[in-house]
Design goal:
O-acetyltransferase activity, transmembrane, globular, transmembrane helix, seven-stranded mixed sheet, TBL_N, Rossmann fold, TBL_C, 24% helix, single chain
């Protein structure tokens, strides 16, 4: 049984303060160095990214610093079976999960509340507009979550779903509003861009090419990007030129340098093509994985399989998240701000670190038949990367909702 208790998140980011202490805290932050408690119990310096981007526009409160509160009265915000467009990759209840407590945790920021998600208000905000999620399968999961959050407010005859190549579009016809997902796991051009057949052993990326993707979301009103999971390898093969040309130049580039190169291309495109007075821009930070049970006190051969509770350890940080890559995102966002383009970071990393029980594990559609060996050892095929819905991505969208409305 899930503990009906509150889990206090680590001091990830700048803590909110009471108005009477605002001046004092500003002085302290300018003069001092900020620390947080790490997994080892020792003090480690907060990454630069967090200090600069924890809450740029909403200085009265940092939504990303808080605690998980068990709340089976208000959550989940929708029922899995009632979401018309639920993905079988994320429908954990449908595929046999009995413990549904993962649906009933609410993120509670310190010293303030997240605004309650209002589907009708969001649809009205999106009237005659496009909200486009761009990225990998984790961003697709957030898109599915957003569709599930709003579609119950739209009559069946006034909504539609259409997929064409890499672009999937949910349409609320009465509002002329669209909530879309575009598959671009590396943001820039790569040989993994096919939305169905992209599992290739030899991954190749064209770090200076983005137009093939970007032309599909140039006129979007709200853009939500992510790109992290597909970069998690020691090095990547980079191509200068085209795949068809015999004159193309290939070179293996180590991480995180190749990631930095790709984000430079992405940021240059935003500066040239996006009207920042019209378009709201967001970047969702890395989604943590829970593949190593040893990191939260289980045996070394265990993972998220059979987990039913969050991690209680304050300041927990797993090996599936990379500080260096987060810093690169932060530096890229900083440079864009200097160039007059504002991108708001949605920092979901620390709050999601605690939710080891929120993954599909074995409770999802298996696209290929499982072997007898796999069936005898469920840990071997447990999905500890993606997230069940309803679940953690709904919280990401509650955060996004707050920033869209500039609470």
């Amino acid at each position: 049984m899930v503990k009906k208790q509150q889990m206090v998140a680590g001091t990830w980011g700048i803590r909110c303060s009471f108005q009477s202490l605002a001046a004092l805290l500003v002085t302290i932050l300018v003069a001092g160095v900020i620390y947080l408690t790490g997994e080892s119990g020792s003090l480690i310096e907060v990454p630069l990214l967090t200090l600069k981007h924890a809450d740029d526009s909403m200085s009265h409160c940092n939504f990303f610093s808080g605690k998980w509160v068990f709340d089976n009265h208000s959550y989940p915000l929708y029922k899995e079976k009632q979401c018309t467009f639920m993905s079988d990759q994320l429908a954990c209840e449908k595929f046999g999960r009995k413990d549904l407590s993962y649906q009933q945790w609410r993120w509670q920021p310190h010293h303030c509340d997240l605004p309650r998600f209002n589907a009708t208000a969001l649809l009205e905000k999106l009237r005659d507009k496009r909200l486009v999620f761009v990225g990998d399968s984790l961003n697709r999961g957030q898109w599915v979550s957003m569709v599930c959050l709003v579609e119950s407010s739209v009559p069946p005859t006034l909504k539609s779903m259409h997929t064409s190549g890499s672009l999937s579009t949910f349409k609320a016809i009465e509002y002329n509003a669209s909530i879309e997902f575009y598959w671009a796991p590396l943001l820039v051009d790569s040989n993994s861009d096919d939305p169905l057949n992209h599992r290739l052993p030899d991954r190749i990326v064209r770090v200076q090419a983005i137009e093939k993707h970007a032309r599909h979301w140039t006129d979007a009103d709200i853009l939500v990007f992510d790109s992290y999971l597909w970069w998690r390898r020691p090095k990547m093969k980079v191509l200068w030129g085209s795949y068809e040309s015999p004159e193309g130049i290939y070179k293996e580039v180590k991480m995180p340098r190749v990631y930095q190169m790709a984000l430079k291309t992405w940021s240059d495109w935003l500066e040239i093509h996006i009207n920042s007075s019209k378009t709201q821009l967001f970047f969702v930070s890395m989604s943590p994985t829970h593949k190593r049970g040893k990191e939260w006190g289980k045996a070394s051969d265990q993972n998220c399989y059979n987990e039913t509770e969050p991690i209680w350890k304050e300041g927990y940080w797993g090996s599936g998240s990379d500080h260096k890559m987060m810093r690169i995102v932060g530096e890229t966002i900083d440079e864009l701000k200097i160039r007059g383009v504002k991108v708001q970071l949605i920092n979901i990393t620390q709050l999601s670190q605690y939710r080891k029980e929120g993954h599909p594990s074995i409770y999802r559609k298996q696209w290929e038949p499982l072997t007898e060996e796999q069936l005898s050892k469920p840990v071997s095929y447990a999905d500890c990367i993606h997230w069940c819905l309803p679940g953690v991505p709904d919280t990401w969208n509650e955060l996004l909702y707050a920033y869209i409305f500039r609470y």
